[in-house]
Every structure is written in structure tokens, then in C-alpha cells.
Records
---
Amino acid sequence: MSLKNAIWNGLLIAALCIAGFLLYRIFRQYSLEQIAQSVRSIPFPTFCSALLFATASYLCLSCFDFLAIRALGKSLPCRKIALASFISLSLGHNIGFAGLSSGAFRYRYYSRWGLTAEDVAKIILFCGVTVGLGLITLGALALIVNPGDAGRLLRIDPASTRLFGLLALALPVVYAGLAFFIRGRLRLWRWSFQLPRFSIALAQIGVGTINFMLVSACLHQMLSVFGDVAFFRSVTAYVLANSAILATHVPGGLGVLEATVSYAVPQEASIGALIAFRCIYFFIPLALGTALLVVSEVIFRRQSRGADQVTEERAEARSV
């Protein structure tokens, strides 16, 4: 076994161990009776609708990779992009340092399909920019539409909150404008950045914003079971929580998500809502992503052995 394969196998085993540890860590602070009672209090149709919002969010996330690969001028089947995206993000969301952890899994898959390390680095950067654009855009809309709650949390008056929202909304507008007028590399002092085409820049802003709206809708479904909470209150709570998670890099946002949402909507953030949301958006994808990782690795190994066997047979035939 080569050193490269040994390293990748070690990383794979480490990832599986971390996934198992995270499953334990997510639920160890709650008793089984608390978890069961909380989940039972949520109507099944509401749970299913939240699950649909979460599914749609992960589909949006796969669109991030699709747009990135298209911006590179590359082409891969959608099923391969969806597989690499879901496995890397379902595990990356829970492991922490999502850019690095999900990037490692992306490289594992995309390198098999002909992309270089530079290509994967550009995909990671592109997806990170898309996340930032989506979070800023939705956060700006929350400041404008829901200045009361946002102002209370930020301790500023509603007028100033709306002003901050308009200023924040200018950032994605400037990004799209640069992509439209420059149409190439943007140079800032000693740094240069390759801007995407205008259509792709607009798609980044749109898909990034829709993704976070879907996650907020998933959270809203859970919070609304335990209180009358407006949708944009859920948006405000999630934008703040996700910003805190990105800043702290805590695996799965453990504790950070719960604390931030509880602070933003203290009346509705019951243990049932938060456990159910974590289960839907983190636990279920983590379990599915881990299973797909194991299955895909087994398939890849069999294909690799089959290819090696064919190569050996051809070499023997030529020698004869």
C-alpha cells in the first residue's frame, strides 16, 4: 500500500470515528425520555414538512458545487456532483471547520473524476463565497423586514437596523455589478480574483439566499409547534446562529446553535424544537452521509481492483 493510500485510509477511518463520536455527543446531554417526549410532541406532518425543507436545502448546496464546476469550465454528471456535495457537507457541517473538512472529502471524490487540486481549491472558495453572499443577503432582508427583533438583539433602534440592512444588501449588488462590468480578474493591490460570469454571479446570490431561507423554514416549522413565531423571526434567529457557528467553528454548532436561537426567540425555543431541528438538519444527513461514504468507498475500491485486473490481463496478453 502506498503512503498516499495509507493516509487517505487513515483519514477515512478518522472521519467515521468522528461521525460516530458526534452522534453520541449530540444526544448525550438529553435523556432518552426527554428526546422521545420532545419528538412525540411534534405533529408528524410538521416533521415531514421540515424534512422536505432540509432536503431542498441540501439540493441547493449541491447547486453550489454545480455552479462552481460550471464556472471552471468543467463538466461532471449531476449525480456525481450531488454525491460529492452531500457527503462532504453532511459530514463537514458536523465536524466543524467546514471549508477544510468538506474540502478534504470534495478532493477525495473530484480528484477521482479528473479534477486537479487547484480545481478543488477553486470550488471550495467559490462555495464559500456563495455561502457568504446568501447569508449576507438573507441577513440584510431580515434587518429590513424585521427591524424590531433584529434591533432588540443588536441593541440599536429600528431605523438604524434598516440602514444596516440596506448597507449589507449593497454587498451582493456590488458583487454582481463587478461580475457584469469587469468580466475577468479583479485586482486589489497584490491580490487578484477571477470573477464568474454575470449569470453565475446572480445564480450564486439567488441559490445562496434560497438555501438559507430553506434552512430557516425548517427551523420555523419546529419553533411554530411550541409558539406563534413569525417566519422572519426564525430567519433572524438562524442567521445569527449560523454566523456564530461560522465564527466559532464548533462541530455541528453544538451549544452555539441552541444558545443563539434561545436568545433570539426565548419563548418558542423549547428543547423539542431544537432537538428536532438538529435531528433533521444535522443528525439524519450525518447518518446518511456516513452510510453513503462507506458504500461509495467499497464501490470505488471494487472498481479500482477491477481496473487493475484488466490492466494486468492486457499486459499479460501483450507479453504473450
Note: The longest strand covers residues 185-188.
---
Amino acid sequence: MPGTVLIRRVEPDLWSIAPPGAPTVLDPAPALDTTVLEVVGGHLSWSLLSGQRLPAAILHDPTSAQDWLWAIYGESVAVALNDHTEPVELSADPHLPETATAARRLAYAHWAARWWPASTLDGIPALDQRLLDEEIATLTEECDLLVDGDDARPPVRELAAVPASARAEDYALAAGESAGDQRGALTFARGSGGWDWRRCPPGLVDASEQAVSWELTRTGGLTAVRVRAVAAPGITAAIPGYLRPHAAIDTGEGTVDIALELFGDTWQGLAEIGAQAVARVEVYVPGVGPVTADPVEPATRGRIRALAAERLRRAAEPTTGDSADSRETAVTSGSADTSGAADSDDAEDAPLLAEIAAAAEDSDF
């Protein structure tokens, strides 16, 4: 993965080593596809959608970073960081390409734990968190030369909360009772759309651009708005109150905020409003993510869905000499070789164990 990087001091106590156009942790609003890894003396980052191989580095302790710079960028870059006070552009070539590959895969695995676009509507299955955590732990060991902080510790997840026990046929009844019985109401407007993934923790809401819907009804001289948001695939646990999504309903005359309740596989809420129109509905968890939405996010989310679907498609393809049964056994035992064929140039983009398992369980892949 040779390439060119620009070495420069960006602040009195911060140095940057970055390929042209690469995102860094200093960007005011990192894109959804930015993967990040905390390392000794700084942070590495990659653009997932661009296929960037060489990471960008922001260093707050260049001296400590010398322990691994040579492995990721090559000796010439490591030496130049000490020798040059003015910006300098150099060729970079990892001295330890296996470590560089493991670092990029580890950053991606951490990203997948947060941003994987699981969607029942779009047919993108959720990733098995146990398999994902196990691979993160393995990759963390492979990157012990450079990882630091939280990224140097294997993930620890709390046990799932109390499983939901309601039967599927009970969901519609419960939803109707709790969200308000509007039999006989006139529905005069409807809408649907997506939501800003940054504003909810993972595993709560379906990632589709059609996951959120609303309808305006009129009955008894009152206007009400009902909001529905499809829950993330596999959501079966009792959700703590502080993680319950809300819906901010912009009527053009003001904003109405309602807490949503989970009934089966749908978050729902109902509120009376004084307006006769809905301009937009934002689903969010209070205190999570940015307050304002990025207007380019829907397009970026679409590209991320396409990337996830492509990775699942490749994960479903057996490698030479592998049978479906042998691959399933390897995933179950945690011993699958996800590095790809020995002579493959795309080893670092080989599917994660969790992606292989998800593809194997979904008949569409």
C-alpha cells in the first residue's frame, strides 16, 4: 500500500501525516465513513468509501509515535518527522504491511460496531456482536505495537437486558392500545424518510431511508400525528428509558417532541398538534449526536449501504477449496481465515467473521 503523504505541523503541539484529501480527527465534522484508531502518541484515520489504504495520522506525541511510525509509513517518514520543520511530501511504504493491514481492519471493525447499516427493510442483516468483539480482540493483539487508550483494550459489553416475550400477534394489539385508538379517524397526510444515524446509538432503529413514517389524522375536531420508526433487526431486549428514541416533529409552525415506545418491531408515538401539516420528522435519542443534520448525509448513507451489501455478497462467496459447511464450522469455532488467499491484493478488505456469519444466515447473500 505505498503512497504519498504530507508531513506538517498543524499546531505548535500537533503534527499531521496524511495522504492527499484524507480525513483526520481534526476535521470539524467527520464523515460517517471515517474509521479511527487510537494509537500511541496520536490517532490514525481512514476514509472507508474512498478505499484509502494509507492512514492519516494526527500526533500529539511524535516521540512516542516513533515506536510504530516506521511500521505503518516506512523509515523515511519516521526520520523526516524529526528532521523537517517545514512541510514535506514523501513516499510512504509500510515496513510491516501485515501490521498496517491489521490496523486498518481493526479500525473498520470498530466502525462496524457503531455504524453497520443493519436494516430489515433494505435486507442488510445485523452483525453478530460476539463474533465482532472476538475479532476486535484478535486484531487488537495483532496491533499491540501501536494501539493505545480504549482501542488497546478488548471490548466489554453488558449482558442483554430482559428479553421481550410478547408474541408477534400481540404487537399490533399492543401498539393500537398504547399509541392511541383512532378508529374512525380520517388520515389526510402521510410521509416517510430516513434519519440521521449519528443521533441514535446502534441497534435501536432500522438504517433504511424508509424507516421513519408519519401520518396526520383528524377526528373529533382534533388533529393528531402518529410517528412510526422500524426497529433495528433483532431488537429483543428491554430498552432503558434513557435510550428510548424521540421524534421531533416540525410542523412549520413549531416543533412537537414525543417519546417513542417499542411495540414488537416498531417504535411508535402519537401526539395532538395544532397544525395541519408536517414539514419533517427527526428521530433521535436525547443527548446523542449533533443537533443539526448534514444535508449530504442521505447520499453518504446510501453509499454505506451499498458497501455493506457488497461486503456481504463477497462474504457469501466461498474461497477456493472451501465448502459452505467448512466455512460455517470455521466461523462457529472462531478459526476462519479472513485474510483471503495468500496472494490476494485485497487481503485487508476480506470479510470479518461477523460478516461471513451474517451472509451465511441470510438467504439473499
Note: The mean pLDDT is 86.
---
Amino acid sequence: MNTQHFLIGALLVASLTGCAAVATKTNTLSDERILSETGGVLGLSPSELTLVERRTEGVNTYVTLKASNGKTYACTVNGGNLFSFGMTNPPVCNAR
């Protein structure tokens, strides 16, 4: 019975790891779309934002933005991949 539980657990971990890899590789978010969506949440136009850093892990894209007023923001955009059919949830942004 313990071997069966181990195998089921290993299969679950492997499938979740595979899903995260597929989500990362199928991310379709352009820099322009990220600036547009995060700008809407921050109340700024995309032209007022500069994308400083970007990384995608699984279904989330993490970005650092610099506004023309000098403020820096850390934002998370969830979605934009095969599993979400390209759709995203509203970004979550925090001032740094």
C-alpha cells in the first residue's frame, strides 16, 4: 500500500511540474500588453511606464516597472498562456 501511495504522489508531482513548464513555454504576453494591463491597474498610461525586468514562472509573469514620476512597482500578471486561453486576471501591483 505504501508503494502505491508513493507512486501516486510521484505522478502528481510530475504532472504539476509538466503543467508549469507548458504554461511557461506557451506564455503569449507581449511587453506592450503587460504595460497596458498594469497601467490600467496603476491609473497610468502605458507610455508613462517602462518595463525594467520580466520573468515568467508557470502561470505567472513577474515584472518590475518604473513610472515616469520615478516610482517603481512590482507587478504579477496571472495567465496569458495556453491553459488560460491567453486571458489574464487583473494584475496585482505594489509600490517598491
Note: The first helix runs from residue 2 to 25.
---
Amino acid sequence: MKEIEAAVEGILFASGEPVAADRIAVALDLDRDTVDQVLRRLADYYSYERRGMRLVRMEDTWQLCSAPEYADLIRRAFEIRKPAKLSQPALEVLTIIAYYQPTTRAYVDQIRGVDSAYTVGLLLDRHLIEECGRLQVPGRPRLYRTTKAFLRAFHLNSLDDLPEIPGLEADGQLRLDDDGAVQESEQ
């Protein structure tokens, strides 16, 4: 088992990017359950032993990352500036795309009531969202969705980990009272 753990560790370290568990299973000629067990053991080990790195799961992929408690030391060692925080408009656009993906910029603009072209461009530059096709209507507007970098930045395993929006109906619509307050959903 130690040899398998070491091989998995080597693959993840050499990649530097998220690696699918299926890919690891094929590379090591192992069944998927064994690989999943090894990955969970390694993740627990790094966390329990308070090592300088963590094994992070994002949907069906795994990646070695530095432990968050050492972020300041790592920045200092490599003279890395803290990434700029996201502005309120950027958070709004990112939230809309995360909950309604894939979606168009026009839909984001409609919800926000303002032009979001600059903010969408900023989120694309930061690799938090990506283009994922075009809508099959006249003009063929671009569709956007969140990326694995988004999941990593917000410490999410998958989009299922996003908190529920109060009052959001199955049809994606918020229901408001006459005074503009969000109605509690009837479930």
C-alpha cells in the first residue's frame, strides 16, 4: 500500500494540476475503488499530520496544494503579492454564473440591470469562469460557466456544495412578497 501511495503522490506532484482519479487508476493499473481509498488516506494523512500541503478534491479530480495556514510564508518566500480581492460587481457576476450556468452575459446583465462586459472579462482573465459554447439563437451569444479554479478559490468540492438561495424555485425564479421581501420556498 505504501508503494501505491508513493506512486499516487508522485503523479499528483508531477502534474501540478488537478488529476482525474480514473486517470490515476489507469496509470497504476488499479481499480477505481482502490485509488479512491488511497486518495482519501493521503488527504487524511496530510491534514491530520499538519503537513505543509493538502490533497484537495474537486469534483472527480485531485490536486496537491500548499496548506492554507502557510500562505503568508509561501508568499514571502516567493515574494508573491496577495491576489486582489474580487469587487462587489465581480462577486455578483460570479454568483449569477455559478448558480445559473451555463449562462450568457446578456442574462447576467438582465439580472444585475447593468452592463457586465468588463466584469466578465476580468473573471475570464482570472480563470474563474470560462466560455463553454454558444447559445443556439440568433447572434449566437457565448455561454459561460465556472472553472475548477473557481472551486479551488472558494474551497468547494463541486457546485453541489454551493449554499441554497432562499426563495429560489425549481424554475430558477425568486418569488417576492408585495413589499419586495423574498418569499420562503414551499417544499
Note: Strands lie at 19-20, 53-58, 61-66, 103-104, 129-134, 142-146.
